[in-house]
Amino acid sequence: MKPLVVAVVGAGPSGIYAAEALIQQSEIPINVAVIDKLPVPFGLVRYGVAPDHPSIRSIRNTLERTLEREDVRFFGNVAIGRDLSVEELRGATDAVIYAYGAASDRHLGVTGEELTGSIAAPDLVAWYCGNPDVHPETSIHDQQQHNPVEELITRTREAVVVGAGNVALDVVRVLIKNNDELDDTDMADEVLAVLADKSVTDVHLLARRGPAYTAFTTKELRELGKLTDVDLVLEPADFELNEVDRAVVAADKVAARNLAAMEDWLQREPSGASRRIHLHFWTRPTKINSSDDPAAVGAVEIERTRLNGEGRLESAGDLPAIEAQLVVRSVGYRGTALDGVPYDEGTGRVPHAAGHVLRDGTFSPDEYVTGWIKRGPTGVIGTNKSDAVETVQALLHDVADEALSAGHSIDELTDLLAARGVTPLGMADWHRIDAAEVSRGQGHGRDRTTIAHRSELLAAAADDQ
């Protein structure tokens, strides 16, 4: 029986879990082409999980086993929309699963958000994780170009992080930690060099709701309390719970654990530490003001919030502004449109029914979707596994109904790319990059050092030594 050829666009957890679900089923033979615009696989596991969380980042070892399967082929450094159109990809394979995630960000919608020093958490995270898309290559004058984030980091004393999720906590930790607390991570050398020069003394985290409503996981939250030479500053009034707050805590074990951790911090006496994390609950930004430089961030105007009778947030009055040179919005990721793929601007997702893509309200015969671009940026890494299973079940149902059948070879995709002069990177190339990063890290006393520039990644992939 001829194998069905399925292309998966995106080599992050959602895409690799889709590949895993395809090859683990025994109903029909399937060959999978996992395609990613980056030279390396693993998506947000490599470029989104904080480098000081090595246990979570090690999930890539499990994901790698799927990509090593004989019936799975990795096509790295291939951008759909640049190297191949969606129409061409569909023409060379039997089915396509879109798993390219949600790499954009949501905006605060306040005046001053466009000022220099106001940035999105995804951009900062991509920088400190060493994503080559945000690390410029050497210029034609042989001078190293820089991401604007680097200059911001080194001149910031006070930073404001807006958001109440784990990404916001990651950003807070990276901004406040001493460099020697980051030296054993796999951060790129140039990232560590910039962080070594940072002058951040205070980070303010703004959460629109109260401490009973945070989206933090308790383990990540408790890490703040273990940081050296850092005082945690909280407002006792934020922890005066009403009946609704207490009901939320009683019904949610995570909320209860988070609240207990923060209430413990309330009892601590200030130690006179050189750095501080300020947790502001029932607080949201209303305006970002400029500094002496009219184009740069200088302060954040904020207001107190509360829930009205309908459970919606409303203003409860202005609060004193917070001086800041850096504002990081961490209020959610958002999917973006890929040319040739249906897209709902309102939701930031690909329209679908149980993972089966809808075009003009009807099922597209060979298109499916999984991950954040399917359901939005919700859940943890493992959530993508059950999500992928649902999508693959939709695909298998179409095969059983004879709405989808095998008609292509995976070599057709290779030949099509070759005709365009595109040579994808495979798993052998990844292994050479991996070895180069391990070698670079061991030379600095670390397990690995991330290679942040695309040209260096490609050079490592081509190095037979």
TrEMBL record:
Residues 6-199 form the FAD/NAD(P)-binding domain. Pfam families: Pyr_redox_2. Its EC number is 1.18.1.2. The keyword Nucleotidyltransferase does not apply. One of its GO terms (molecular function) is ferredoxin-NADP+ reductase activity. It catalyses: 2 reduced [2Fe-2S]-[ferredoxin] + NADP(+) + H(+) = 2 oxidized [2Fe-2S]-[ferredoxin] + NADPH. It is an enzyme of class 1 (oxidoreductase). This is ferredoxin--NADP(+) reductase. Keywords: FAD, Flavoprotein, NADP, Oxidoreductase. It comes from the Bacteria. Its cofactor is FAD. NADP(+) binds at residues 208-209, 220, 379. Belongs to the ferredoxin--NADP reductase type 1 family. It comes from Microlunatus soli. FAD binds at residues 14, 44, 80, 372, 379-381.
